[in-house]
Specification:
Blueprint: H1 2-8, H2 13-35, H3 37-45, H4 53-56, H5 67-112, H6 116-120, H7 124-165, H8 167-215, H9 217-222, H10 226-272, H11 277-326, E1 347-355, E2 364-372, E3 376-380, H12 387-394, E4 402-407, E5 410-411, H13 417-422, E6 424-427, E7 436-437, H14 438-442, H15 451-461, H16 464-468, E8 477-478, H17 487-500, E9 505-509, H18 517-527, E10 534-538, H19 542-546, E11 550-555, E12 558-562
Parallel strand pairs: 3-10, 3-11, 6-9, 9-10
Antiparallel strand pairs: 1-2, 1-4, 4-5, 7-8, 11-12
Helix pairs in contact: 2-5, 2-7, 3-11, 5-7, 7-8, 7-11, 8-10, 8-11, 10-11, 15-17
Length: 564
């Protein structure tokens, strides 16, 4: 498993090497502090036994017989160990949290830069769950594994210490370790992995249904289906709750088992302890050492089992994050590839454009449209005819199957996506209003836009009356989704957003339908003051079409120019 972490976390390799060194040092200090029990006990009893001869040669002259010096020396070692252990834990937390942050950055970047078609294929709740929770669980897996590895090294070093003192007691220690290991067994860890996978699935479902319910709360209330949706949420929440209880119980079980392991060890020591007092005095230093060592072993073994459970249950999250980082449904969009386009020039032309969201279901079947600079162009047609689809391919959210989108400088495909979209402002049928101030919503993504430009955009979009009614003006707070705005105010605010961004082409998708005809005429008249601004309006309203320079009707996947 260490190899897998090493393989998939390249940015952690140097830090991981440092952590491994500190872990080994921590284990050495832990073992060394335990070994000091032997000379301290010998000095206290004055046993003179041979059991401590091997250790005396490593202690400065006279110290082995001075219990105070030995105790001070032990205290110094324990203090050093404390700081080394603290450093190991702090570095583990610091490094794994940095890794979690990097995963979140990479996954969010991969998601946002995917083509729109690939994004729409994802369930939003699952994406949010993977981004927020599974990255945390994956980082927790690495942290727990490092702690698990530290305990393994400490256990191994204590066993080596016991081997240097008495091979018989070493055999006893191995039996204790084997007892602790087989107490939990393979089934225990398979169960942990199964619980971990189930936790991922339940969390994904719970997040998905919560987000879907929040987004569709109006439809839920109008359709009187609150009971159905709350029932689904409660059902998944109860299953998640039950799974979490099982995980916590299974994690803590080994901690309880250590007392049983230690009890068995004490019984075995009692059975093999000599009954003669002089012999007891001779072997007492060893017995004291082994009791301390076995106490440490019992604690380590129980913690090893607990951390192994945590590692096993979190491992599916680690695998999922690595899989998401290494596999994508589609190559990400590269916003910088291609030549930069500073202006659309005198026209944008769709020439024999074919497109379908599915290969066997064409939506556009040879569309020809010419949009001249400074014109207002209206596009109408029945629902589902492909009006919005034309805007999707014009903004290059989707690649056309065949045909051309042209400007005087050449085909659209030769220009970078970033520079192309920079020239387009799009107001959808249901614009998104974010929680924040009016200014933040208008300058979205461009905080350097001045207050004067924000006010001018509001004037052109016809929402100065809204600003005048608010004491805070452009600094007034808006609710999420603009719930404290009317439908018309939302669309005007979204229009002010694209005006402030100073685009050359503005696309209004059913935007003016929620605005009164007189107000619509005023807004379009304001926009027409900029002779270089081109406007495309998708609409069913005849009064809007009468204000246009050119009108197209979409029928059977084709565009037909019409006169009013």
């Amino acid at each position: 498993m260490l190899f897998k972490i090493w393989k998939h976390c390249r940015e952690l390799r140097l830090k991981l090497s440092l952590l491994l060194f500190i872990t080994v040092l921590d284990a050495f200090l832990a073992t060394f502090s335990i070994s000091l029990v032997l000379p301290i006990t010998s000095a206290a009893l004055g046993s003179g036994g041979e059991s401590d001869v091997w250790f005396n040669q490593y202690i400065p002259g006279g110290m082995a017989d001075n219990i105070k010096l030995l105790l001070f020396f032990m205290a110094i070692i324990l203090c050093i160990k404390f700081f080394v252990t603290l450093l190991r834990v702090l570095l583990s937390i610091y490094y794994t949290e940095d890794l979690r942050l990097q995963w979140q950055k990479d996954l969010s970047k991969n998601y946002i830069l995917q083509p729109l078609k690939a994004i729409n294929a994802n369930r939003q709740g699952m994406v949010v769950n993977d981004l927020i929770y599974e990255t945390g669980n994956g980082a927790s897996f690495i942290f727990n594994y490092l702690s698990y590895l530290s305990l393994i090294i400490i256990t191994a070093s204590v066993l080596i210490l016991l081997l240097t003192i008495n091979w018989f007691w070493m055999g006893l220690a191995l039996i204790v370790c084997a007892l602790g290991w087989f107490t939990v067994g393979r089934t225990y860890f398979k169960y942990a992995r199964r619980l971990g996978k189930k936790a991922i699935a339940l969390n994904q479902d719970l997040n998905a249904i919560m987000i879907e319910s929040i987004q569709g709360i109006k439809d839920i209330k109008i359709s009187n289906s609150e009971t159905f949706h709350t029932g689904k949420i409660e059902e998944i929440a109860e299953a998640t709750n039950y799974n979490r209880k099982l995980v916590k119980i299974a994690q803590d079980f080994p901690v309880f088992a250590k007392d049983l392991i230690f009890a068995v060890t004490v019984v075995v020591i009692a059975l093999y302890m000599p009954t003669d007092l002089e012999q007891v005095k001779t072997v007492m230093p060893q017995i004291a050492l082994f009791i301390v060592a076995f106490t440490k072993l019992a604690s380590s073994i129980s913690q090893i089992s607990s951390f192994r459970f945590k590692v096993t249950s979190k491992y599916p999250s680690f695998k999922l994050v690595i899989k998401l980082l290494n596999t994508q449904k589609a190559p990400p969009e590269n916003l910088e590839t291609g030549k930069k386009v500073a202006s659309f020039g005198d026209y944008i032309r769709l020439k024999d454009v074919h497109f379908g969201y599915d290969e066997d279901k064409p939506v556009l079947d040879g569309v020809d449209i010419e949009i001249r600079k400074g014109q207002i162009v209206c596009i109408t047609g029945p629902s589902g005819s492909g009006k919005t689809t034309i805007m999707d391919v014009l903004t290059r959210l989707y690649d056309i199957d065949s045909g051309n989108i042209e400007v005087p400088q050449g085909d659209a495909g030769q220009f970078s996506l970033g520079s192309w979209r920079q020239l387009i402002g799009y107001v959808p049928q249901d614009p998104i209003i974010y929680y924040g101030t009016i200014r933040e919503n208008i300058t979205l993504g461009h905080p350097d836009i001045s207050d004067d430009d924000v006010h001018e955009a509001c004037r052109l979009a016809g929402i100065t009356d809204l600003l005048d009614s608010l004491p805070e003006g452009i600094n007034a707070m808006l609710y999420e989704k603009g719930e404290n705005l009317s439908g018309g105010q939302k669309k005007r605010l979204a229009l002010a957003r694209v005006i402030a961004h100073k685009c050359q082409l503005i696309i209004l998708d059913e935007t003016t339908n929620a605005i009164q005809e007189q107000a619509e005429r005023e807004i379009l008249a304001n926009l027409k003051q900029n002779e270089d601004l081109t406007i495309i309006i998708i609409t069913h309203r005849e009064s809007t079409m009468k204000l246009a320079d050119v009108n197209y009707r979409i029928e059977a996947g084709r565009a037909v120019q019409i006169d009013l």
